[in-house]
Amino acid sequence: MGTGKRGLTTTAVTVVCAVTILATPGTTFASPSPAPSPTASPSTAPSPPPNKDLEAVHKKLEQLYHAAAVATDAYNAAEEKAKEQSTEIVKLAQKIVQGQRKLDELKDRAGATARAQYRTGGLPPEAQLMLSDDPQQFLSGAGRVLQGQRATKGLIGDMTRTQQDLKEYAKDASAQWEKLETGRKAKAAAKKKIKQQIKAAEKLESRLEKQEKERLAELEREAAYKAQTAWLDTGILKEISGKASAQGKKAVMFASAQIGKPYEWGAEGPDTFDCSGLTSQAWAAAGRPVPRTSQEQWKQLRHIEVQDMRPGDLIIYFDDASHVGMYVGDGAIVHAPRPGRTVTVAGAGSMPILGVVRPDA
């Protein structure tokens, strides 16, 4: 078996194992019992940190990382707008160049007409015909005069329209530049907020002792297990029976292949991802481009009921649609959680669900 096949097999096994555990209806997701350890004497045993204090730290960390996620969505949205505006500016610049070339050509034609009049003494064609002694020449020339008048009016009309077009193109380009500058400031502000929130979270975690960090991680797992168990206990999994579409299978395969890669805000792969970077790239790989941010995915994609979802659908989390994961079946998602974590499998109900959207509706 080739290296690529082994990699896919390993990924598949990882997902299947995790999904099987997550989906077991009778599983209560209680924290596993710790392995027996040598009994420490009362005088040397470290006193466990108060749960109340660690729970407060856990809550604060959630708030900080959530704020960072919201700011990341704002950063990604500004980045997408900047790309669109830059593309539009390039198109407008091309139109301006083409318009200027057309205007130069029209000016050359107008100049040629003026020079021709100068060579005939500056008399208008009507006067030249009146002075002619040849009636036939007069009659045939009259037609040419009318044609010349129409051509002149057409030339003037073309020049006027081209000049107006150039003004509009320049005005539009200026507006796009202003939007681009506004977006640049918004992106810079979002970037600053992201860094501030992550720095504050890291500083808070750095103050914890090893035992406290281990207990904090345990609290995080317990909270996720509790939420997932409550979700499964509603019997929702019995109602979810949708099969993945062909594109959905491709999207799931892509997302699952990224398991273990680090989270990085603003990243779309191939080595790091944020939550919406993972889902948007997974669906792009499946041949169905979707909006870049979780908020836009929620706004633009078709909403479906949770019980109707199928693998490949996107689950949007929190009231502000600041997080997204891909449903992979059996009550599980693949998602990029937050800074300091890697792309992983988690319970679909381990976070507050806002709703579900379907990219290939």
Notable characteristics:
single chain, 361 residues, alpha+beta, six-stranded antiparallel sheet, 6 strands, disordered N terminus
The tally of strands reads 6
Amount of beta strand: 5-15%
How do the SSEs run, as a string of H and E? Answer: HHHHHHHHHEEEEEE
List the total number of helices.
9
The backbone outline, from C-alpha atoms, is elongated
Which stretches are low in confidence, meaning pLDDT under 50 for 5 or more residues running? 1-48
Helix content: 55-70%
Q: Could you describe the largest sheet, including whether it forms a barrel?
A: 6 strands, antiparallel
Strand order of the largest sheet: 1-6-2-3-4-5
How would you classify the helix and strand content by structural class?
alpha+beta
The average pLDDT score comes to 80
Describe this structure in words.
- By secondary structure, the protein is an alpha+beta fold.
- 62% of the residues lie in helices and 8% in strands.
- The chain has nine helices and six strands.
- It has helices spanning 3-23, 51-119, 125-130, 135-206, 210-232, 236-239, 246-257, 275-285, 294-300, and strands at residues 302-304, 314-317, 323-329, 332-335, 344-347, 353-358.
- Strands 1-6-2-3-4-5 form a six-stranded antiparallel sheet.
- A hairpin with a 2-residue loop joins β3 (323-329) and β4 (332-335).
- α2 crosses α5 (210-232) and α7 packs across α8 (275-285).
- The chain starts with a helix and ends with a strand.
- Residues 1-48 have low confidence and may be disordered.
